[in-house]
Amino acid sequence: MNAERRRPVEGRTVWWKAALVALPALTAVAAMGIAMSEGVLAASFAVSGSAFQVSSGQLSSQGLASVVGVDRSVDGTGRPVALLGIADAELSDLCQAAQVKTPLGNVVFKLRAGGAAGSVEVRQLVLHTADLAGDATFEGIRLGQDASTLDQVPGLQGEPGQFGLQADGVSVSGVRSHAWSATGGNFRLKGLKLDVALDGSACF
């Protein structure tokens, strides 16, 4: 925590606030086998051609950071993303859903965790997100910080002069997000459930 603390900011999120709150997606990606067992930005890879949904009823976190980046698919197509880093967080519940085209039709791959089984825990992960929303209260938020000086999440920094933001802590309810990928980190999924169904329901 910084010595100087700003008063929490409350209310409906706007784009830059939302950029800090889709972090639950990280745990979902990890369960799908994308995340690595050690480190934060330990690897890079070509992303698939479709984003996945993530939602959570409640997220509480200490240590957040974000910079702008680009994800690329196998054909070289680039997509602008917000790289959202999380140092230490707990989620009340988690839902992740990805739609996959198959010879049988559209299949929904859906993962759920948390709830009655206990909270989902996330440590040192970086999410590459397209959009997100929720209702949030922030602690010690710093907008426009030089991206090369970010220090809340080890390994998550940008180029000197690039826009960056970070916060000491955040509490978010009603998280909804579309994300492309995630890298690094450690996480714990209690009550993990996986469903694969033709024309199945998504998270939202």
Write the layout of secondary structure elements.
Layout: E1 9-12, H1 15-18, H2 25-31, E2 52-72, E3 78-91, E4 93-102, E5 105-114, E6 120-139, E7 142-146, E8 163-183, E9 186-188, E10 193-198
Antiparallel strand pairs: 1-6, 2-3, 2-4, 2-8, 3-6, 4-5, 5-10, 6-8, 6-9, 7-8
Helical amount among residues, as a percent range? under 10%
**How does the overall form come out from the CA principal axes?**
globular
Structural class, by secondary structure, is mainly beta
Strand content: over 45%
Q: What are the main properties of this structure?
A:
204 residues, mainly beta
Would you write up a description of this structure?
The chain is built from two helices and ten strands; from the N terminus they run E-H-H-E-E-E-E-E-E-E-E-E. The protein has 204 residues and is mostly beta strands. It has one domain. The longest helix has 7 residues, at 25-31. The radius of gyration is 16 Å and the shape is globular. The model is unreliable at 13-43 (pLDDT under 50).
